[in-house]
Amino acid sequence: MNTYKRLDQDDLKNITAFINRDRILWDNEINEEYSHDELSAKQHYPDMVVRAVSTEEISKLMHYASENHIAVTPRGAGTGLVGASVAIEHGIMLDTTLMNHFIELDEQNLTLTVEPGVLLMELADYVEKHGYLYPPDPGEKSATIGGNISTNAGGMRAVKFGVTRDYVRGLEVVLADGTIMTLGGKVVKNSSGYDLKDMIIGSEGTLAIITKAVLKLLPLPKKSVSLLVPFPTLAEAIRAVPPIIKSKAVPTAIEFMEREVIMDAEEYLGRKFPDNQADAYLLLKFDGNSMEEIASYYDKVAQICLQQGAIDLLIADTDERAESIWKARGAFLEAIKSSTTMMDEVDVVVPRSLVHNFVEYIHQLQSEMQIRIKCFGHAGDGNLHAYILKDQLSDEQWDKILNLTMDKLYSKARSLNGNVSGEHGIGYAKKEYLRNSVSDKAVVLMQGIKKVFDPLDILNPHKVCQE
To answer: Taking every annotated instance into account, which residue ranges of this chain make up the domain FAD-binding PCMH-type (predicted)?
Structure first.
């Protein structure tokens, strides 16, 4: 195993020569939040946290780390769910949240250039005020755009618009040795050699550090309508999705949810959901430039849902009605977390025609393993979020049942031709499941790519495909 240098007072002195001491956290200045991400149970404290403010600072820091063989863990808002921004080898944690500036809105090329610490909710608000849409819409709005790019985040609008990768035109990055590179740019087409930009997207900080991003924008739709559709069972709800997709009505989002998760959200938010009588729901959103255009879409979808067994149709055609529904949807993760002592999650993606098979398996597994599993997700793109809850299990029982349940869930996803992660990434926590789901040759190729970008393995070690 690689041996990394642990930082000492000499390193602190050397690094403060090019980074202000008031933006460095050292020793007992490092608070507990920097020892884990949103879901990671194990704590690993970095030796030092550096709150960088420029590409040049990061370049100098990486040059120093490379020269002294120090592990560096890039980190945004720390909202990840797989331990990707946890400092397994201690070393330096590079916090990019102060790099949160909007650099350029280019309305001729429909691009926005930003630093990596801009929060997703700030980005959405900024572009919408100017009449544009940044389509990727992950549920965690307080995540940074750098983190979204590092995990190739998807979100609820992926069914219509695609994922983060589809909206990154260019990146400025710092390599492990401190080299600054620009990859891609504002061009729409690019067939100029291997696409290094796309390799960085989704690499979870293991290949390079993102310091700027050029994002593609779309014109902002003028109108939107949400449709909440209750069904007697989740199986019936999810079986309605393939006919909806086939109808070419093009919903912006198709989410599925169960009554028990809605009840958790009601309790967490202290407010009622518009309807909580059915066992399962589809939540759909339609965007367009006129209500007539949108109505032509949702009328068709409404008929399909009723044919597939829907109990009712609730139309949210005002901002207030839609906000109450989507706010509850956005609170699902925190609501589930607050209902138990500890949890872990599975973020699998399967062909969308087989989502119901996976959900039905989760229900079987709850009974078989005698453990609570809460599930919701993106029915339109096949990405499911299943949360396994510890409740009152002892640590020993939890470890045993969790590992067995995870093994069964990932095995089921493989049998349905699915993948380990749809949008949260692999990080540290899901490495063994990735290895079980891809060929040995694929792992060797991934490790080879890592070695070319980072021959000393100092960037975010032990993540994704590394030992």
So the answer is: 42-220
SS3 5: coil
**What's the pLDDT score for residue 284?**
95
Q: Is the pLDDT of residue 231 over 90?
A: yes
Helix spans in 390-464 (H): 395-415, 431-437, 440-453
- Which amino acid belongs to residue 161? F
pLDDT of amino acid 181: 98
Query: Do 223-333 and 340-425 agree at the fold level?
Result: yes
Query: What is the helix (H) or strand (E) element at residue 234, kind and residue range?
Result: helix 234-239
Q: Which helix (DSSP H) or strand (DSSP E) does residue 129 occupy?
A: helix 120-129
SS3 helix, strand, coil % of the chain, rounded to 5? 40, 20, 40
CATH class of the domain whose range is 9-98? alpha beta
Cα–Cα distance, 345 to 385 (Å, whole number)? 7
> DSSP letters along 274-322, please?
S---SSEEEEEEEEESSHHHHHHHHHHHHHHHHHTT-S--EEE-SHHHH
What average pLDDT does the segment 391-420 reach? 96
Dihedral over Cα of 440, 80, 138, 172: its sign: negative
Report the pLDDT averaged over residues 101-127: 98
What pLDDT shows up at residue 249?
A: 85
Given pLDDT bands bounded at 50, 70 and 90, which one contains residue 165?
very high
State the DSSP H helix or E strand holding residue 180, giving kind and residue range, or none if neither. Answer: strand 180-184
State the fold for domain 340-425.
Alpha-Beta Plaits (3.30.70)
Question: Which residue type sits at 362?
Answer: I
| Cα 380 from Cα 241, distance rounded (Å) | 7
Which pLDDT belongs to residue 384?
94
Give residue 40's pLDDT band: very low, low, confident or very high (50, 70, 90).
low
Reading the block at residue 82, the tokens are 């797989």
Domain map (residue ranges) of the chain: 9-98, 102-219, 223-333, 340-425
C-alpha span between 396 and 177 (Å, rounded):
43
Determine the average pLDDT of the residues in 179-205: 95
